[in-house]
Amino acid sequence: MNVILLTIFVGLILVGLAISFFFYTRSSAQGSSPERDSLLPLEDEEVVEHRPKC
């Protein structure tokens, strides 16, 4: 019986942590979404000009 109570207790702690981390990441995102972030470039591209040797 003690094992079942311990399992329920640990399970409730894990659920509470998951919910709190979810709300923490949603509140710290501030206008960010996966769709928007995936469309942003990772870094600025540098233009390299190739000049033929004369």
Query: How big a fraction of the residues is strand?
Result: under 5%
**Helical run tally:** 2
Helical content class = 55-70%
* Chain-averaged pLDDT: 82
Spans where pLDDT lies below 50 across 5 or more residues: none
Give the radius of gyration.
25 Å
Order of helices and strands: HH
Distance between the termini: 87 Å
Per DSSP E runs of 2 or more residues, the count of β-strands stands at 0
Describe this structure in words.
The longest helix has 28 residues. The protein has 54 residues and is mainly α. The model has no long low-confidence stretch (mean pLDDT 82). The termini are far apart. The protein is rod-shaped, with a radius of gyration of 25 Å. It is 63% helix and 0% strand. It has a domain of 25 residues. It is built from two helices and no strands.
Q: Tags for this entry?
A:
54 residues, mainly alpha, rod-shaped
Any chance you could write out the topology, listing elements then pairs?
Blueprint: H1 2-29, H2 34-39
Q: What's this model, at a glance?
A:
The chain has 54 residues and is mostly helical. 63% of the residues lie in helices and 0% in strands.
